[in-house]
Fold these 4 entries.
Entry 1:
Amino acid sequence: MFCGSVGGASGRRFPVLVACGEAKLSSGAFSAAKVAGVCNVDARNASSALRRLRCMSVRTLGPPFRTYLRQEGAVTPRKEGPSGKQPREQKWGMAPLSAEKLSDSRRSGPRFKFNLKMSKCRKPPLGSGPETFSPDVLADIAELFAKNFSYGKPLNEWQLPEMSEIFTYDHMEFNALLDLKNSLNEVKNLLSDKKLDEWHEHTAFTNKAGKIISHVRKSVNAELCTQAWCKFHEILCSFPLIPQEAFQNGKLNSLHLCEAPGAFIASLNHYLKSHRFPCEWTWVANTLNPYHEANDNLMMIMDDRLIANTLDWWYFGPDNTGDIMTLKYLTGLQNFTSTMDTIHLITADGSFDCQGNPGEQEALVSSLHYCEAVTALMTLGNGGSFVLKMFTLFEHCSINLMYLLNCSFDQVHVFKPATSKAGNSEVYVVCLHYKGREAINPLLSKMVLNFGSEMTRKALFPHHVIPESFLKKHEECCAFFHKYQLQTISENIRLFECMGKEEQTKLNNLRDCAVQHFMQKFQLKPLSRNNWLVKKSNIGCSTNTKWFGQRNRYFRTYNERKVLETLSWKDKVAKGYFNSWAEEHVAYHPGQGSFLEGTTANLDCHLWHVLEGKKLPKVKCSPFCDGEILKALNEAIEKSLGGALNLDPNFRTKKQYYCSCHIFSEELIFSELFSLTRELQDEQLVEPSNQIKCLLVGFSALNETKIQLPLEIVQETAELTTFSCSLLHDGDPAYQQLFLNCLLQSLQRLHTGDAMVLPVLSCFTRFMAGLIYILHSCFRSITFSCPTSSEPLRTCAVLLCVGYQDLPNPVFQYLQNVNELLSVLLHSDAPQQVLQFVPMEVLLKGALLDFLWDLNAAIAKRHLHLIIQGEQEEITSSLELQN
Ligand SMILES: C[S@@+](CC[C@H](N)C(=O)[O-])C[C@H]1O[C@@H](n2cnc3c(N)ncnc32)[C@H](O)[C@@H]1O
């Protein structure tokens, strides 16, 4: 089995998994037989092998194989209870268990010993002993794994309405469903005063599936094993997601929307490889680009373990944001995937942090779900499967979406995996056998026209066109999941108040039982690291130990969060919400700046390319800085200084700043520079006989500083220090062009061993990080000094670069080209700017990443310190005036 890549017509590469070394298999029967280990099968005796297989107990085969047989019609889902009753685990196409059946099952005694008893040839579950559990515990866990509702539609009754009815009416909510929504929110409201960390700790313990993830991670060596990994494994093993066609042709293509950090992909990889699924697998993924400076941290999951190492297979669209909610993205994606002949499986797991307004989660994410569904319906191949995460399904827009999916697919199921936290609202809509784009084309064309975040203003379908029979089913579905969620939250609240020893023991028992159930039911098999998507990761922000900054720093409960939202900026400053940053800055001393040792790596710039994207309105996130610090700084700039650049000149002068922190004098900076140069000479890295000089970039005057190095000053670049910080930070194309221009001029003046002092605003963007990488490659060592100014938002850091080596000519030429492009874009009012010119894989490597984090943190904390100090002084003096 190997993981390789194929080139598309456009030169794109997609990851391809080839199982068992068989690139193409002529028939599904052949593939299936071979996978199941029926030996010496070839194409001629494949059918007889399949017959033999059909005689084997389906439970002894891995899930993909069972799925295949079911699809082939060879096996009907077998009744699993020894009593011959309805199986406890819900399979597709079956009605949910009714309350009576459940209580029946509780009384029914030890019938629900797991299937282990029935399948004698099966090995005991991985990592667990031959434990037995009481009937109550078994029934409880069986129920946990049975949260499935199937729509089971009536023949020909659910049809798409006339086109004239589309997007013509306002939304009208359904009273019965609104009642469900309100009753759920009433219970959720009881959580508002709970301390978030304590509540999370509590629900982590009461979560019956809470031990599964760590067990799976260890016992089957699962890559990127998160909750999402386990959830998707449950879905994969519970529904025939992979269409027959993929088995028959030995080729599987999948597309994963809103997928960062990528656990669904890792889960699918595990499933295919560990069960030796006989096909080439190609995948493509979408998500909000975690490296795009204008994307909001709150909307993303900042874990790039997979993304950083598989960047070629993530499509971020023409504007590089990865935002699926634009029409341009959809068009670009269709183009990007055009070399895949058909897409068999699409997953869409989009969501974002709705903690600010949890009661309206469904409405808040409805536009995102619409875009995911339209994208899927536009790209999925006939007969394909679609898995869409949704939350509660109470609102008119969700009803419409569910109706659309029911009209577009042969089967629709709503499934809540056991490993999805029982107290949250998320469910997965599993749609099987797509009828094809042609079947719904006129509607899709209209839906695409309404693409964007505003599309849900008018209702997709009016009330009167949705059949009663559908509404009835849908209401049943909502009530089914509502009941479980309500029960879980109420039980969690009860246990939060008081949980006795006995209850703790019972919960522990349930959790152990859930692990066994999971392992047996889904027959997980180990996978060697060799078969992982990322065998060895050494790049990415996630490798940076400082990456996982503390979230929710300022509040502990939901109510506290709400109070914080109502506070004005001044109130927050007065209450000391930002003091920790200022304190950290006061503790910062000269000589603390980190070092970046020169690299011996060759600059392979012939493999690089320039990436352009939409002009940045603001820099909201950065892979090179702690998200919390950047967020606090942006708030400070916005609220205290009105965004800095738009500032009325009078506004700024009225503020007086007195800096209580260290200002590094020029003398201090030069003495550091000198000692660094001496060190290099001592280590004989630089010839002592060389007349070393120091180039000062952008310094206009030197206040009689005594230094021990001959100086050369690049006067014409003095503007560099006059640039002030704004919400755009170093993302301002004018600043970037000036900086690059200075750099190119300066580097031409340097000789081997020389030093350079270069002022820098910040390095939040990929563009600036690219330039630091260039410096990293052509100097022996770089460090920084910060602050150098007592005025807030003025350029406040300098890079001290020592031991100039060389800048290879091709790199110089490349940078010249970038510079020319910047100049053209700047002078043409173009809507785009250069975002990146050094590949992300290079910028995300250890030492450089650490250096940039330290540099940016020092700069941001210093800005914050000065702004907050100024604000606090103003508050104090106005209080004094009042008294
Ligand atoms: C729950 S996570 C997905 C987890 C993923 N399935 C996994 O297995 O690791 C939700 C993702 O939706 C993404 N998302 C939210 N809004 C989006 C948008 N407009 N476009 C693309 N992705 C979006 C978020 O960035 C986040 O990564």
Entry 2:
Amino acid sequence: IIYSKVPVLPQVFNDPIHGHMEFPPLLVKIIDTPQFQRLRNIKQLGGGYYVYPAASHNRFEHSLGVAHLAGEFVRSLKKNQPGLLITDRDILCVEIAGLCHDVGHGPFSHMFDRMFIPEARPDLKARPDLKGWEGAVPRRPKHKTTHL
Ligand SMILES: [Zn+2]
């Protein structure tokens, strides 16, 4: 018999900002993956942590807080705007989106983006209107090929 490690009840996480945050079993299953646990080691403030070591905030707890607030937000919409027909599945999807929004971050957060992406993808350039590499666009070729 294989016993599932999936919790069947919601679990409560304590947070210094949001207090008790209750997450459904599917979110707990995602939290328990190596991919999500990796966020414990990614500094929210990039290299700022090395200058201000007390300013420690990692993508892990940040993402838990985002999932919590996303859930509160969509539950508020469901309560106050019943015409939107928001389902429990919708709420779960919004919570998962909040939880996972930073899973793709590299080490040192956005500092990594500015240093690594230009090296790894010289064919892309940052979009100044987005102040970062989100939605990076292909560079135009420097020289146009002329057909004779
Ligand atoms: Zn984030």
Entry 3:
Amino acid sequence: MMHFIGSLILFCLAFNACADSKITQQLNKPVPGGVAVVDLGRAVQIPKASYQSRPVLVVKEQSNWLAIVGIPLTVKPGIQQISSNGHNFNFTVANKKYPEQRITLKNKRMVNPESADLKRIEAERAVLIQGYRTFNTVTPSNVLLDKPVNGPLSSKFGVRRFFNGEERNPHSGLDFAVPTGTPVKTPADGKVILVGNYFFNGNTVYVDHGQGFISMFCHLSKIDVLVGQSLVRGEFVGKVGSTGRATGPHLHWNISLNETRVDPAIFIGAFQP
Ligand SMILES: [Zn+2]
């Protein structure tokens, strides 16, 4: 019996298999648009990891390193692979069906932009995508995040959206229904890497939490930060508004990992399969 208990303890220590970590429990939601938490084991130094040739966030919990991988909405269910220090690690993506939403916009330019708008949209898209490519080696202060505002969730991530009957990109973030002027807090420490006004997103702020883990806040009525500014968890970045393509005041919050937008609900413990 003692031998058995001894073996069990050794097994637990060696493989961390007896209790999933808090991070794995909350964040491991391997569906399209979700997150895979991959145990990379022990190492003295932080291992590098990549998925689809992009660097991946790696954090330590207890004695093990965990890769926190953003899974694109376009990935089909099945086996996916990351590589780390010359080894491959598999994870399995399960199916998830996202609902549809039909939205009516009075401003038809927001559905079928004019040619001058299209030029602006193209230029802005390049800037916004470039922002998500930021990869600083800083370790995030926390990967289990605070809600940036206190309020009910309105539109969920991944919803297939039809504006005035025409299908557009699926919803890339999570919406909170809160009044104009509500202060928006950064859900973890970070550095402001982008501030601007954009056609669809309105007044926008990016906060880089480290290693490609980036928050985007959109439709703000007011921006209270400058590019380059360092923020601690809970500091204000701006105020809720309805600038850009918005049917009313709300906060739109994106989370990006390895240049991939994933469901922010996962990070605040509000994920629904
Ligand atoms: Zn939104």
Entry 4:
Amino acid sequence: MKVVFLDRDGVINVEKNYLYKIEDFEFVDGVIPALKSLKSEGFSFVVITNQAGIGRGYYTEEQYHTLTRYYLDILQREGIEVLKVYFCPHHPLKGVGKYLMDCSCRKPNPGMLLEAQVAFNINMSESIMFGDKISDILAAKAANVGRSILLRSGHPLCEDDLVVADAVYDSLIDYTTKHGY
Ligand SMILES: [Mg+2]
Ligand SMILES: [Zn+2]
């Protein structure tokens, strides 16, 4: 199958530093129609998110999972099924206890993408990664994802970032609109 790999913060929801409260969760404009369009193009969805806020002790895994269930429920009611949400709770320097780890899952490492590839038999060359940071793009490239697209809907980008990505769009809905989906 071909999938759209989605970073979470700055792609699905508005980037807020170390988001974990439901009341702070806000979809980026147009995300739901954009995902519906991508679904109609035959893509399945996998979310790939660094959540070092867990490792840093800013919120717990339980709080993280509560927020995950919240937005997955909303997407599901819109007919958008996410195959799986992969998250990395680690931090190589600031992690507390078991979370202090130089892991292979934290983007820009491709660990989560490679795990998904095996689990769902994903055709990586037909798949697309959407992210708002260069680390999303580097992880996708390392996992041989066919296209990696940087979005301006999250973290501010610098000129150097723009060259690494295959393309840059304002948001997910900007991408699908311009592709005529
Ligand atoms: Mg992000
Ligand atoms: Zn990790």
